[in-house]
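Data deposition worksheet. Section B asks for the primary sequence of the deposited chain exactly as it was used as input, without tags or linkers unless they were present during the calculation. Section C holds the resulting structure in token form. Section D is free text for depositor observations; keep each observation to a single sentence. Incomplete worksheets are returned to the depositor.
Section A, Depositor: J.P.
Section B:
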Amino acid sequence: MSSSFRTANAGPVGSGGSAGPAGDGPTADPAPLHRVRVVVHASDPISRAGAVSQLGRHPVIDLRDEPETGPGTVAVLIEDTPDEKTVARLRRVVRGEGAHAVLVVRAVREAELLDVIECGVGAVVWRHEAGPHRLLQAVLAASRGEGDLPADLLGRLLGQVGRLQRSAAGRTGAPVTGLTAREADVLRLVADGLDTSEIGAKLAYSERTVKNVMHGLTTRLYLRNRAHAVAYALREGYI
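Section C:
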């Protein structure tokens, strides 16, 4: 049987309806709380203990022992600077085990930036910003399959994307196999940093159409989020 840490705010759950004020009769139990399974990996025990302490105070978080990863689990990986070993672990956790990933780091080198995103990491938190609220925000975003990147890191990612695009523009016959013309158009604008409404206005599509295009693209190619889709498309030469 799998074990789990008890959260600091989690109290005992009664087996029946709780009694209301005198004369009011029994009241219905509240709806069960949907909890997010979280596993914390760290290169040192002090960092892991700190993250466990911060996350454990939130009732919505269900902390599990390290071996327990899998679909629906959010794996929080804490490193100083990601290297090849970190990237390999992220790839195994996300692609091999089907978990979501949050990466907490001090810095990310340019050489590893696209590798980290391509692994399917949707949330990155700087270690100096990893307080209880910020860490919880990233974990919940990852559990929903959403992206959560620091603004400065997103700017660097878009800058790197732009450089790759300019480099690809110099090559003739850049392949677009695997993407429809509509998908390629939308993805190019995503790479330029436009949001859903801006893409819709640019291409004369409704926001719903843009969302449907992105959903179809990410589902068909098994991509985790927009950042992953852009990284994948650039690596494969689709845009």
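Section D:
Strands lie at 18-19, 26-27, 36-42, 61-63, 74-78, 100-105, 123-126.
Residues 33-149 form a domain with the Rossmann fold fold (CATH 3.40.50.2300).
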